[in-house]
Recover the amino acids of this structure.
């Protein structure tokens, strides 16, 4: 398979070590109708950002879910190449392949984008264009009008980045999406598999494969300050140039034209104090104290969930996320919300006015940021979250103000000696003090939002109990349907479960697109069923079901894997190893100051002992009636994330295992970090552990107790008893569902004995 259009000049082989580059060929010939591409170059898989901000390739909480879990197979896959040819190329680093480009391969969207690239920057043109997933707020889930990467590539996953050159189109994504991307990309596209061994960064790929002096275009609104700086550093060292196309606008939006969806217009709503637990003035007071400590005159919050949390509002501009396109700007004596004024309904306007928050037009942000910068104010902007466009506007305003002041001084003091200037007096000293000097630290809103208060935790607990009723109801419904001989599609699974959630009090929407993967689709980690192409669940199907709900009080995220018939021994073995990892993490106790990366191996060890693993992180942060993925904490192999797991943070616990083309297993509960009582406190440290929030039974027939310790079996029994205790009282009006819950929360020895009588193959541990 071909990597269409890699520049022929100075091709570079990237060795197993990312830092080692070995030049292997250097032809200057122009491309013909045949594409000759080194397989070694095609293995060059970048990631979009440096480790410090690599989370943007993935989700807020997960980040690079493939990190630490090298994928098998080639690091890149050209969609047009037969699998056998791809395998041969991957196995032989010296091999090259020539694949003809046909007229049928032409992608009209790519052709239009390349035409826009040629005329960009007042006709000077660009050699490559970068299209990330993010919107101007660096959202994991952008609104429909900002789904530029999805539109141009056809890839619908939530993580990835695109590079389009004059003759190449490449998508980078992580291990959650390899199978999905391979099925969604067209023949002009090459899939680059992030996290596979020996792959360079995206920036390194551009530096090595573009010609000297090449200009790389970006939309500065959808790249962070850190991302652009890293790109600039890598490309400038290689003789290339980064071109922020501010006046051109987004080039994909130009291609999209009048087919592009309109900007969202959902109204804002007030987040009730019963679930917020802290009013806006108190939150502003905390932020201003952080500003004082950091020496900042103003603080910009650009992430949508930060704005919603700070001002106790919720919106509906982004599917699955109760947020609104907006910014927050706080000074020592003012606070402003920048949003489409039509979204501010009377109740919200009253709430904001009472909280001391001024409402301003969404597009008024740049002028206010520029005014603060021009006046010499120190603006706190998180370089990992704020767009480069906002940063450039502030920097330009500072430079313009300095230039104006300098001209004014020169008009008034033409006689000032040059010597006084260079010795630090007069204009020279003034010029040095007018450079833009933002406070570049992580947003204090992020950390404050991650530590839930008592009311937020109460809301999360309530949301999970409501959710348990819906999920348990669905599991019983599925069992009954299959028992009657019915066949249920994956889409019907999604619709039924969502319908049951909708019956619960305070339900707003799903917290992400439901993942209902039957059989081999369960191995597609972030699979999305579609009518016409989805699989069905029959009387002998292993189903992975990952779903969640947004309620007025909290956010849920749960995964259960169930079998509608008799699972194989191998499936039960894999499920049990995943369960053991889940139990190990759930039972962990650790000293304060410990990051999630130190705990991640606990969930993997039972799988590692079998020679198994999974290509995603084990846990992500979760918002309180906010985004289902949030940071700064994570439980993953990304060792650069050093944020400690602190009391009152909410995380997921979701190890898994996936066999491509066969099945997938994942078990997910949400947990809250709590203080633990220990016999001792070494060095005076507090010790922490988890409290479970999710209460839905695990399917007993998938558990092989012969592989488990007595303590692990006891954990399952104790968990099921807690599920019964917490959920049963909510099912008093549903006697059939109550009986189902009782049957599925009995001790494992009883459930498995029932299974044996029914004909299931089970092995009950001798210890029982």
């Amino acid at each position: 398979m071909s990597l269409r259009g890699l520049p022929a000049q100075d091709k570079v082989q990237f060795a197993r070590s990312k830092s080692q580059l070995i030049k292997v060929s250097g032809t200057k010939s122009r491309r013909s109708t045949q594409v000759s591409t080194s397989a070694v170059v095609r293995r060059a898989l970048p990631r979009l950002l440096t480790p410090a901000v690599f989370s943007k390739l993935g989700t807020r909480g997960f980040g690079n879910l493939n990190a630490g879990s090298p994928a098998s197979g080639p690091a890149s896959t050209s969609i047009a190449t037969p699998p056998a040819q791809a395998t041969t190329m991957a196995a032989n680093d010296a091999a090259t392949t020539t694949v003809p480009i046909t007229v049928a391969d032409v992608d009209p969207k790519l052709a239009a984008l390349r035409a826009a690239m040629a005329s960009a920057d007042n006709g000077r043109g660009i050699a490559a264009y970068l299209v990330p997933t993010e919107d101007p707020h660096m959202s994991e889930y952008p609104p429909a009008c900002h789904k530029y990467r999805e539109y141009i590539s056809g890839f619908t996953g939530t993580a990835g980045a695109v590079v389009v050159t004059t003759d190449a189109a490449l998508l980078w994504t992580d291990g959650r999406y390899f199978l999905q991307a391979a099925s969604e990309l067209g023949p002009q596209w090459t899939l680059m598999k992030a996290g596979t061994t020996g792959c360079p960064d995206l920036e390194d790929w551009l530096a090595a494969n573009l010609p000297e002096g090449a200009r790389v275009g970006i939309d500065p609104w959808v790249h962070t300050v850190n991302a652009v700086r890293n790109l600039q550093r890598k490309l400038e060292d290689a003789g290339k140039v980064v071109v922020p196309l501010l006046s051109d606008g987004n080039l994909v939006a130009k291609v999209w034209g009048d087919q592009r969806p309109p900007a969202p217009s959902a109204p804002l709503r007030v987040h009730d104090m019963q679930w917020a637990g802290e009013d806006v003035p108190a939150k502003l007071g905390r932020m201003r104290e952080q500003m004082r400590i950091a020496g900042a005159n103003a603080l910009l919050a650009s992430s949508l969930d930060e704005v919603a949390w700070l001002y106790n509002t919720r919106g509906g501009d982004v599917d699955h996320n109760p947020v609104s396109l907006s910014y927050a700007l706080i000074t020592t004596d003012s606070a402003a919300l920048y949003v489409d004024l039509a979204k501010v309904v009377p109740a919200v306007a009253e709430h904001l006015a009472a909280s001391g928050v001024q409402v301003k037009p969404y597009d008024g942000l740049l002028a206010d940021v520029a005014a603060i910068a021009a006046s010499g104010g120190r603006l706190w902007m998180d370089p990992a979250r704020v767009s480069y466009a906002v940063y450039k506007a502030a920097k330009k305003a500072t430079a313009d103000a300095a230039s104006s002041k300098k001209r004014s001084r020169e008009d008034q003091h033409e006689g000032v000696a040059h010597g006084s200037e260079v010795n630090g007096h007069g204009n020279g000293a003034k010029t040095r003090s007018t450079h833009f000097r933002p406070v570049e630290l992580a947003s204090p809103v992020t950390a404050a939002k991650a530590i839930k208060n008592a009311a937020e935790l109460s809301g999360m607990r309530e949301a999970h109990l409501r959710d348990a009723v819906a999920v348990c109801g669905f599991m019983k419904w599925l069992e009954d349907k299959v028992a009657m001989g019915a066949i249920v599609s994956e889409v019907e699974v999604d619709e039924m479960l969502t319908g049951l959630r909708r019956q619960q009090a305070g339900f707003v929407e799903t917290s992400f697109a439901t993942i209902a993967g039957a059989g081999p689709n369960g191995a597609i980690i972030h699979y999305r069923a579609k009518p016409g192409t989805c699989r069905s669940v029959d009387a002998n199907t292993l189903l992975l079901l990952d779903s969640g709900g947004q309620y007025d009080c909290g956010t849920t995220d749960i995964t259960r894997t169930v079998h509608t018939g008799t699972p194989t021994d191998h499936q039960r073995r894999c499920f049990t190893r995943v369960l053991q990892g889940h139990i190990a993490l759930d039972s962990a106790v650790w000293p304060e100051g410990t990051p999630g990366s130190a705990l991640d191996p606990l969930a993997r060890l039972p799988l590692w002992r079998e020679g198994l693993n999974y290509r995603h992180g084990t846990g992500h942060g979760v918002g309180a009636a906010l985004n289902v993925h949030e940071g700064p904490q994570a439980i993953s192999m990304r060792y650069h994330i050093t944020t400690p797991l602190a009391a009152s943070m909410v995380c997921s616990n979701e190890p898994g295992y996936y066999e491509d083309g066969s099945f997938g297993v994942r078990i997910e509960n949400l947990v809250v970090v709590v203080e633990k009582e220990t016999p001792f406190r070494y060095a005076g440290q507090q010790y922490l552990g988890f409290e479970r929030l999710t209460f839905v039974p695990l399917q007993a027939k998938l558990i092989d107790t012969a592989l488990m310790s007595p303590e692990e079996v006891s954990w399952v029994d104790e968990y099921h008893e807690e599920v019964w205790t917490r959920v049963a009282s909510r099912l008093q009006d549903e006697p059939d569902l109550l009986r189902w819950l009782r049957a599925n929360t009995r001790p494992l020895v009883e459930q498995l004995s029932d299974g044996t009588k029914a004909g299931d193959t089970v092995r009950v541990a001798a210890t029982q």
Observations:
- Residues 1-72, 80-102, 415-433, 756-768 have pLDDT under 50 and may be disordered.
